[in-house]
Amino acid sequence: MGAVSRFRDPQIEMAHGAGGKASRRLVEGLFAPLLSAHSSGPLGDAAHLNIDGGSLAITTDSFVVKPLMFPGGSIGELAVNGTMNDLAVSGAKGEAMVATFILEEGLPTSVLEREVRAMAAALHKAGVALVGGDTKVVERGKADGMYITTTGIGRPLPQVKIDTRSVRPRDKIILSGPIGDHGITILLARGDLDLEADLRSDTRCVLSLIEAMVAEAGPGIRWMRDPTRGGVATSLNELARDCGLGMVLLEEEIPMRDEVRGACELLGLDPLHIANEGQFLAVVAPEYVDAALNALNRAEGGDDALVIGEVRAEPACAVLVTTRYGGSRIVDMLVGDPLPRIC
Amino acid sequence: MRYVDEFRDPELITKAAEEIHRLANTGKHYRIMEVCGGHTHAIYRFGLKDVLPSNIELIHGPGCPVCVLPMGRIDDGLAVAKQADVIFAAFGDMMRVPGTHGSPFEHKARGTDVRIVYSPADALQLARKNPQRHVMFFAIGFETTAPSTALTLMRAKAEGVGNFSVFCNHVTIIPAMRAILDSPDMRLDAFIGPGHVSTVIGCRPYEWIASTEGMPIVTSGFEPLDLLQSIVMILRQLRAGEARVENQYKRVVPWEGNRAALKAMAEVFQLRPYFEWRGLGFISQSALRVRDEYSQWDAERRFPIPNTRVTDPKAAQCGEVLKGVLKPAQCKLFGKECAPEHPIGALMVSSEGSCAAYYNYEHRKTAAAMLTSIASVA
Fold it and tell me: What is the DSSP letter of B336?
């Protein structure tokens, strides 16, 4: 019995890697039915498995960011933090990692060493061991310097259970800090625009923040996600579709730096679609929201965390942004790819 | 952020909205067309319909340059890029606009060298950096973008950059507004005049709308307060029985326009005898071509052009939507066969297209969601 693909796009385009609608079409239409037909339920950031009575979490991520280095970080650091964050928002603490390097012929050793050192520092900070890896080299011109794939294995945090089906109307939506720093930093670092801003990527491991929140409000945490490619809007749209409810945000509460806002205004981008590498979203039951926020605000790097909105029954399966003056708009998932290869 | 925050101030916006409710409380129905796609986008983006009384109907006009471009022009541009092996450079807005055999992005995935640029000057820079390749800038836009294309061509000529050309699709706004007013199925009370176009052409070219057509027109900025203030100005004129050109966007739009920009356009471009507009058909003297003095940089003279003519799919009602006769959701294909991820017409692609704006920001709002939006959430 052959599995059936529902993916009808005739060829792969950049948008299929942008984390938005096209990516979802590819994953749900081709990869999931052909490769994991027996798994059910919504696709999360990491899989939680039971093996011989013990449970573990596993996730994998590839990094193809261009340029390799940017203000606030580089591909090596991103490759560790990104995978650790995927584990963290699934409710797991990273324990070990394996890495695959695809290197381009001609890559200066100094660049490679710099990135390996960046990985080592990030691993050390996250308290994670690298336990294996693989290296391949491709001809000059076939890769932009280097690509890194990392796979992380983690231990589920016992006090928290992430499940989109547990999300209820009146639950609060928490955001850990200002949005858009990473995407706009990368855009500016490419130097295609004559724009300058004092902006750095927000890349960081969010595990310590999540641990702090889980310790105080674990039973009230229904869902978490790190809004990377496709931004906050795409993550919340995925949640809205998976749980059948509406995510209602208050525009004026969504934190972002003036530099991000200015660049988005100028370029016609929606900050809610811009990638982040050091933030997360959490949906928390109303009776736990104060505890969760207090824990985050007390933790290092969590002082900007705040409630940006609420889960409602309507608009079902959609994200609605409202303003104080009474105007509102639906914000959809990212369509197309305004900023390819940001992580 | 200056020039933004003060125009999004909830208190001021609420006051302006209240003034509109007061002025519009006449029992009449007002049909106001915003000509410019940027305004259409802003109206949906800021949810302004939510704060307007129900007897004010905003009609979306033809001022989205990507949307009015016939598919044949995109096909022609991509055909040149493929056959002559040139770099096809265009604004990001163009990239997902469908041609007969796919959008520029789909052509890129098949091997055509397609690049996004943020200005024609970037395209010229691309040519300087790639002296062994030819760079063709696929130019679109009203008078807003035409001056920058003109200045770029002047620079290319001055520097003698030989591997650069422009595939010119620039159009002019006044003939399109005339065509709208000439259309028998259109009844309007007033115009919200284009903001960016007016920074170049000024406010004088609209005077005939007030004097001959007897309709108020107010050039407007793009922030929520700008648009509401413009509607206030329009309602005041209508209630006083006046028809004048007014300028709400004074901080940017000079009454006389931008002489330097107009001069550059006149130096490089001349009017085409006629040009095809999607939805509006052929309109005489409504578009620009590159003058003979710059023919070396004119892609249409440099390369063989197939002159493709494509009839729009019958079921798609882009033309009616472009003219404001139909609302986006009234098109039979809206949200079904035609959606942002698989668009049939450019109106569903461009950020300034009314179908995309309506689809993205509005159409899944329900009555219950609207109640939600009025209450504070955080």
Answer: T
